[in-house]
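Hi support team,

I'm opening this ticket because the web form for multi-chain structure prediction keeps timing out on my end. I have pasted the exact lines I submitted so you can reproduce it. The total is 462 residues across two entries, so I didn't expect it to be a heavy job. Is there a limit I'm missing, or should I split the entries? Thanks in advance, R.K.
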Amino acid sequence: MNIKGPLEMKIALSLFRATRAAALALPLLCAAQLVWSSPAQARGGRLAQSSVASSSHGAARTQRASAGQSSNRAGNASNVGNRTNVGNDVRANNDVRAGNDVRVGNDVNIGNDVNIGNDVDIDVDVDHGWGHGWDDHPVAAAVAIGAVAVTTAAVVGSYYYALPPGCTVVYRNGIRYQYCGSVYYSQTWHGNDVVYVVVNP
Amino acid sequence: METREIFRMQRRRSAVLAFVALLGVQTTVLAAGNEAAISPGARGVMERMTAFMAKQATFAIASDVTRDEVAAYGYKLQHQEHADIVVQRPARLRASIVGDLADRTIVYDGRNLAMYAPEDRAYVRIAAPDTLAALLDGLLDAGVDLPLADVLFQATEGTLTDGVERGVQIGTATIDGELCDHLAFRHPNVDWQLWVARGDRPLPRKLVITTRYEVGEPQFQATLRWDLAPKIDAGTFAFDAPDGSVEISFDNTAALRGGAR
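Hello R.K., no limit was hit. The queue was backed up. Here is the completed structure from your submission:
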């Protein structure tokens, strides 16, 4: 059996391509870094469940699932939530894995959420290409958290991990808000994270 | 290799095979209930551990934790954190978490719960249930990820094996130089393994939780070092808001107080 040969070749090939893909990914990455001021919370994937006991806690499970999911899928609010689909689908179809190279190439940025966020944007395109939308994922109905808040047309009650640049702190009736563009945000603790929620003070 | 060692390995292997075989018939056994689902050996270890933990009025745990994250395209990352937890029954807790994903300080004094996120310089201070058991329950309901919640939960309520589909003793293993019983359990959505020290301090030394039905089957792993006579100073269970930090709201107060069950 000559399995080893082709496998090795495949790996070498993808690494080779990765080095080239990294060059392409860099400009995108820089753009993402400018926007994403709080990468630590914009998680890119699905975290391992950290508690057995929580499986008997319905509310927690739902919430956690949504937090993990939203965490991250974001990038822009309208696409929040559709990553799970995309990730799975793309993965199932090996031909699309070329996109993977972008990630692998960015070794420097692994563990740096900005990179993951960068993927989100790429994924969103892939997603549209494949015709999957936010609506057809059943879990997407749960609470979704965007990565970066918007400055216009925000829905009251929407959650975001980070604010866009240029927000100012304002006080209304003694309560502290962040005012971004035309939208007011209140900082709140959600599950394990500090998030911004759109309010109408 | 020594004969005894070979014997032990064989025993271990047969235990694993038995575990796998039992998993296959679990659906029929499930109807028989929890009692039948856990082998007498595993049950014995769990009971010994739980009884011993229940006797500890004050304890501290230092834990090294890893969490897998499955990123896009199934790329698996591992995040690390270190947690220091001090507990004084019936209603005091302090947890300090320093990790790749987040740093957190969680302080509970029997009346209030304070949680601080240094990267946001933000904290919450909210009225909390009056026992540790009720607090842990509330935190789980509110989606707050307290490291080693399971261990603390077991130390207070001892109901970790509720809803277990299967639990067996795999064999022995040495964790951090201490001989431990290795147990394996299956819940509907997670598989978990626990290593419990043998001898006169039957405490959990390692925990692994595997998330099932998730691409890449990400794992949570924690190793635990115990101090049963920790030094506790006056400020241990008091939260002082750091300079420059702001108090923010907690969005799930109802769940924390048990209102969302």
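A quick check on our side: Residues 3-24 of chain B form the longest helix (22 residues). Let us know if the file doesn't open in your viewer.
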